[in-house]
Design brief:
The chain has 171 residues and is mostly helical. Helix content is 39%, strand content 8%. It has five helices and six strands, in the order H-H-H-E-E-E-E-H-H-E-E. The chain has helices spanning 2-25, 28-36, 41-52, 84-87, 122-139; strands at residues 61-62, 67-69, 72-74, 79-80, 144-145, 168-169. Strand 2 and strand 3 form a beta hairpin. The longest helix is centred in the first third of the chain and has 24 residues, at 2-25. The termini are far apart. The protein binds protoporphyrin IX containing FE. Protoporphyrin IX containing FE is lined by residues 4-5, 8-9, 12-13, 16, 54-55, 58-59, 84, 111-115, 117-121, 124-125.
């Protein structure tokens, strides 16, 4: 339980913050909107959760009985991987899904999973995101990338969606 709380609670939030900063610095118009209207911050955290999706998939599921999803029948006793990074870019749910929009209604994203195993730490992660993004952009108004975005390396992991490092200039 300690391992779960520490790892699930640390890596995920770290990646939300780092990938979220990258997303905002590479979408400066969205960062300007956020800086101009801080009431957008809680919604922006939801949009960043949707957009950067720190975990690519939810906890493994198994079917107890046949289940039909999107016209496909999954037989009973099958292992199912629910790829939340794909669901969070579903154009039927989120218009223009590959665009970061800090004022979008990102409600219904599945970055924290869904159902009985829904993330235990979601309220804490949301709070940490709001505090971290708000403090970073307040304290370092000139925050900028110190590397070409195309040179950044993403971790090789089927589960974790995060950068190996994010070099930034604070001033
Ligand atoms: C941005 C940050 C976070 C993201 C994106 C995230 C994402 C997730 C996801 C996708 C699941 C699986 C849900 C499912 O299968 O339906 C999960 C489960 C879980 N998360 Fe998080 N999480 C975050 C932060 C945290 C924090 C801060 C904690 C604790 C301090 C935490 C503790 C847990 C635990 C204990 C579970 C297992 C819940 C269960 O199986 O019933 N997470 N999280």
């Amino acid at each position: 339980m300690l391992w779960l709380l520490l790892v699930a609670g640390h890596e995920t939030t770290t990646n939300l913050i780092a990938s979220g900063i990258l997303a905002l610095l590479t979408n400066p118009a969205e960062l300007d909107r956020l800086r101009a209207d801080r009431s957008l911050l809680p919604g922006a955290v939801e949009e960043l959760l949707r957009y950067v999706n720190p975990l690519n998939h939810a906890t493994d599921r198994f079917t107890l009985e046949p289940a039909e999803i999107g016209g496909v029948t999954i037989p009973a006793r099958e292992w199912v991987l629910c790829v939340t990074s794909s669901a969070n870019r579903d154009p039927d749910r989120f218009g223009d899904p590959d665009r970061l929009d800090v004022a979008r209604d990102a409600g219904g994203h599945v970055a924290f999973g869904h159902g009985i195993h829904y993330c235990l730490g979601a309220p804490l992660a949301r709070l940490e995101g709001e505090i971290a993004f708000g403090a970073l952009f307040d304290r370092f108004p000139a925050l900028s990338l110190a590397a070409d975005p195309s040179s950044l390396r993403w971790r090789h992991s089927s589960l974790i969606h995060g950068l190996e490092s994010l070099p930034v200039r604070l001033r």
